[in-house]
Design goal:
This protein is an alpha/beta fold. Helix content is about 40%, strand content about 20%. Helix 2 (about 20-30) links the parallel strand 1 (about 10-15) and strand 2 (about 35-45). The radius of gyration is 46 Å and the shape is rod-shaped. Bound molecules: dinuclear copper ion.
Length: about 475
C-alpha cells in the first residue's frame, strides 16, 4: 500500500473547489509546526482525485463538507470502503460556532479538529491506534475461518428452528379430517405451503436473531456499518430461486385444481339451495327433498349450487372444497365432492349473509352404499298404501318381531292373520280386524295372543300416525 512505500510527512489531498478551504487547512497545519503533515494537492472532481491518488499518494483525503460542487457522496462511496488505510474525512471549517462534521466515524466540534489532526498525524499508519479498527484487523487475519464460523453457526440455527417448527406444526392438527378425494391434492398443497413458510420464517428470523446476537453494536463501537452498494451475484440468486419456486407453485396449483375438478361421468346429482339461513338439498333424479345432505361414500356427488336470496357459500371443511351459492338461475355454480369417510359433518355458510349467518348450517351424512340405499328408500314415499305400509313396518321396526312369511318370531306372523279368529292368553278369542290391530299398536299389552308374551314396546304406537297405521293395516291385509 502506498503509505508503506514512503515515509516522511503525512500527505493530505484536499477535495474542494473553494480556494479558501485549502488555505484554511494549510494555515492550520502551518500553525502547528510540530505536525508532520503537508497538503499535497487540491482536487474538486472524482476524476482528478483518482489521478492524484497514484501521482501524489495521499494518506488522507479531506472533503470540504460545505462545498456544494464537490460530490461528497461519490467521494465517500469511492474511497471510504476502498482498499488501504487511505482515510477520508468530511470537514467543515465554517465559522459561527457550529460543530464541524468530521466524517471519520466521529463527529467533532470545530475546536477539536486540530486535535484530531494531530492524533491522526501521530498515529502509526502501520498499526492504527483505534481499538475498533485494530480488532477488525485482527479478524481480517483469518477472514475465511471467521466467516465460515458464522455461516456454520447461522445455518445451524436456521436448521434447528426449521426442524422445531416442522415437528411442532406436524403435532398440532392444523387441518380438519380429510374426508373427500378432493381434499387430497388440497392438503398436499397445504403441506407444501407449510414447508415453504417454515423455511422462509426460519431463514429470516434465524438470520435476524443470529445477527442481533453476534453482530450487535458493542460498547464503545462508534463505527458506521460497511458501505455496501450491491451484490449482483446475490441479487441474481435471490431472484432466480423465488421465481423458480413461484413457477413451481403455479404448476402444482393448476395440477391440483384439475384434480379437484375431475369429472365422474355418472355423478350423484344434488341441487343445493341456500336461503337465509338454511340449506335445502334436492335430489332431482330421485325426487327427494331433504334438509340434510346425505351422500354415499366413494361416489362423486355433483352439487349444483344456487340461492333464493343472496350470496351464500357452501363449505364442508372436511371436504376442503368450497363454492359460492348465488341467486339467479344463470349464476348456478357446480362443485364436485367424492366423500371418502363415513361419518357426520356440517355444511356451513362461508359468506357473510346477515344476522343468522353464523348458524346457517346443515348436517352432512356420509353413508355406506347400503345405508344410503336404505335412506333413499325411506325418503321415497310410495303412492300405494300397501307399499307405504310395507315401508313403515320396516322403518318403525315392526318386522323385527313379526314375520310376513308365516314363521313365528317374538310376535305372531302377519301372514294370513287378517280377518282370522285367534285365541288369546286368557282363553277368549278375537277376530283380527282393523280395530284389533289399532288397539294392539296403541296398547300392545291389552290382548296378547296365546303362546306369546307381552314384549311389544308400549310406546311404539305413539311414533305412528293414524294414517301410517292405516297403511300398515292395508299391508297386513295384503298378506292374506
Ligand atoms: Cu349464508 Cu352466510
Amino acid at each position: 500500500m502506498s503509505q508503506n512505500l514512503h515515509s516522511g510527512p503525512r500527505r493530505i489531498l484536499i477535495a474542494s473547489s473553494h480556494p479558501l478551504f485549502a488555505e484554511g487547512l494549510r494555515s492550520l497545519l502551518h500553525q502547528r509546526e510540530q505536525m508532520d503533515a503537508i497538503v499535497v494537492g487540491v482536487v474538486s472532481t472524482i476524476d482528478q482525485a483518482l489521478k492524484a491518488l497514484s501521482e501524489l499518494q495521499p494518506d488522507l483525503i479531506v472533503i470540504d463538507y460545505d462545498d456544494e460542487r464537490v460530490n461528497r457522496d461519490e467521494f465517500l462511496a469511492r474511497f471510504v470502503e476502498g482498499e488501504s488505510r487511505l482515510r477520508v474525512v468530511l470537514l467543515s471549517l465554517q465559522e459561527g460556532g457550529q460543530d464541524a462534521i468530521v466524517y471519520d466515524r466521529r463527529t467533532l466540534a470545530a475546536s477539536q479538529v486540530d486535535e484530531w489532526l494531530k492524533e491522526w498525524v501521530e498515529t502509526d499508519l502501520g498499526a492504527p491506534g483505534y481499538s475498533i479498527e485494530k480488532k477488525k484487523d485482527e479478524q481480517k487475519q483469518h477472514p475465511r475461518r471467521e466467516s465460515m464460523k458464522h455461516v456454520i453457526g447461522a445455518v445451524f440455527l436456521i436448521g434447528v428452528l426449521a426442524l422445531a417448527l416442522f415437528v411442532g406444526l406436524q403435532n398440532i392438527e392444523l387441518l380438519p379430517q380429510q374426508a373427500s378425494l378432493q381434499a387430497v391434492p388440497i392438503d398436499n398443497l397445504f403441506q407444501l405451503d407449510f414447508v415453504a413458510i417454515i423455511v422462509l420464517f426460519s431463514l429470516i428470523v434465524g438470520l435476524m436473531v443470529y445477527s442481533i446476537v453476534f453482530f450487535r453494536r458493542r460498547k464503545g463501537d462508534e463505527q458506521d456499518g460497511p458501505y455496501i452498494t450491491g451484490n449482483t451475484k446475490l441479487e441474481v440468486v435471490w431472484t432466480i430461486i423465488p421465481l423458480g419456486f413461484v413457477l413451481y407453485l403455479a404448476y402444482v396449483g393448476s395440477l391440483s385444481l384439475g384434480r379437484t375438478q375431475a369429472m365422474d361421468p355418472k355423478p350423484l346429482r344434488v341441487d343445493v339451495i341456500a336461503s337465509q339461513w338454511s340449506w335445502r338439498f334436492d335430489y332431482p333424479d330421485l325426487g327427494i327433498t331433504s334438509t340434510e345432505l346425505v351422500l354415499p361414500a366413494d361416489k362423486q356427488a355433483l352439487l349444483t349450487l344456487s340461492s333464493t336470496d343472496m350470496i351464500h357459500s357452501f363449505w364442508v371443511p372436511e371436504f376442503r372444497v368450497k363454492q359460492d351459492a348465488l341467486p339467479g338461475k344463470e349464476f348456478e355454480r357446480e362443485l364436485r365432492v367424492t366423500p371418502t369417510m363415513i361419518g357426520e359433518f356440517k355444511v356451513r355458510c362461508a359468506e357473510l349473509c346477515g344476522r343468522q349467518h353464523y348458524v346457517m348450517m346443515a348436517t352432512v351424512r356420509v353413508l355406506s352404499q347400503s345405508d344410503y340405499d336404505a335412506w333413499v328408500a325411506a325418503q321415497i314415499i310410495p303412492e300405494d298404501p300397501v307399499a307405504r305400509g310395507d315401508l313403515w313396518s320396516q322403518q318403525f321396526g315392526c318386522r323385527a318381531c313379526h314375520s310376513i312369511d308365516g314363521s313365528p318370531l317374538v310376535g305372531p306372523t302377519w301372514k294370513g292373520v287378517f280377518g282370522e279368529e285367534v285365541q288369546l292368553t286368557d282363553g277368549s278369542t278375537v277376530v283380527v280386524d282393523r280395530d284389533y290391530i289399532i288397539e294392539s299398536i296403541r296398547q300392545p299389552g291389552a290382548k296378547i295372543v296365546a303362546g306369546f308374551q307381552d314384549l311389544m314396546p308400549a310406546n311404539i304406537g305413539a311414533e305412528l300416525t293414524d294414517a301410517q297405521i292405516d297403511d300398515i293395516i292395508a299391508f297386513i291385509e295384503s298378506l292374506n
